[in-house]
Amino acid sequence: MKKTQLTLAAATLLVGMAAQAQTTLKIGYSNALNSHYGMGAVAFCDGIEKGTQGRYKCQQFPNNALGGEREMIEAVQLGTQDVANVSTGALGNFVPETKIVDIPFLFRDYDHARKVMDGPIGQDLLKKMTAKGIVGLAWTENGFRHITNSKRAINNADDAKGLKLRTMENKVHMEGYKTFGILPTPMAWPEVFTALQQGTVDGQENPIPVILSNKLSQVQKHLSLTNHVYSPAVLVLTPAIWSKLSDADKLVFQDAAKSAATVQRKKVNDDEANGIAELRKDGMQVVEKVNGESFRKAVAPAYANFAKEFGADKIAAIQSVR
Ligand code: EAX
């Protein structure tokens, strides 16, 4: 074989090996690239690219490009999508145990929520996902949720009575919010902006970062800082990829997911610090001092059902984390 042929063969082999060694993961989420979800996703992808010397990279699919959160979780189970950064809204339909974290007024504040999710209780919930064909890498964050609507200011639970509010496809939310007297209308996120624009629903509830990132001020007049539930988010990976990773690469993926959580949580806090002024500037009327006690009192009777569903001891264990 002539020298040139050998060189050519060697070069082809090398290119082949390099090409084989590189895997591009599809990562999807429900908000913009510069939102808390997008920043978390980019931090995760930077982490795996660096940690695997470029053997794993990502292609970003922001703004529901790969579907709503339920569809993305299904796609991760099937392996047609590699990674998703999703709220727990639809997750409970796949991993029922996770619905406990969706109970209204369960978490006192961000410090409490993050301690629970990063501690034994939250880590145990991540492990519960494995049996359902979902690899939970780390809890990221959506944030504390607030009510927006086009009808009236909400100062207390009575003001919310009769409003037709879009909710996530989440039975715990729907049961809890019914005690506020609202008419819960479950709907996938990609349909919500149009539904608000057309008046199919009066309002919705989401954290400030979501309200900001999706420019809901264009279709919602009123924002009330109800803080009525903490909304975790989670980075989930398809088992099809996880099972092929070396132990070292598994650690890289987990560390990258943890750093994504740090970045995402900081963005949530930054959006909360600056977002209210921005939303006011965009024309929203904001009730900052909502009578939270009136909402807590309204939801209290539902806790008996939540205790039946999840165990009063499990609820108490979360409440007692300091
Ligand atoms: O970006 O469906 C929802 O309300 C979720 O909060 C979603 O993450 C919105």
What does this molecule look like?
The chain is α/β, with parallel strands linked by helices and 322 residues long. The protein has one domain (15-319): Bacterial extracellular solute-binding protein, family 7 (D-Maltodextrin-Binding Protein, domain 2). It has helices at residues 3-21, 36-51, 69-78, 110-118, 120-130, 157-160, 171-178, 192-198, 208-213, 239-242, 247-281, 292-299, 302-310, 312-319, and strands at 23-29, 56-61, 83-87, 135-149, 164-167, 183-186, 203-206, 222-237, 285-287. The strands form two sheets. Strands 1, 2, 3, 4, 7, 8 and 9 form a seven-stranded mixed beta sheet that branches. A two-stranded parallel sheet has the order 5-6. Helix 2 (36-51) links the parallel strand 1 and strand 2 (56-61). Helix 2 packs antiparallel against helix 11 and helix 13 packs across helix 14 (312-319). The longest helix is centred in the last third of the chain and has 35 residues, at 247-281. The chain binds (2R,3R)-2,3,4-trihydroxybutanoic acid.
Largest sheet: 7 strands, mixed
Beta-strand residue percentage = 15-25%
Name the CATH class: Alpha Beta
User: CATH homologous superfamily name?
Assistant: Bacterial extracellular solute-binding protein, family 7
CATH architecture grouping:
3-Layer(aba) Sandwich
In short:
The chain is of the alpha/beta class and 322 residues long. Helix content is 48%, strand content 20%.
Observed structural traits:
single chain; seven-stranded mixed beta sheet; 322 residues; alpha/beta; 48% helix; D-Maltodextrin-Binding Protein, domain 2; binds (2R,3R)-2,3,4-trihydroxybutanoic acid
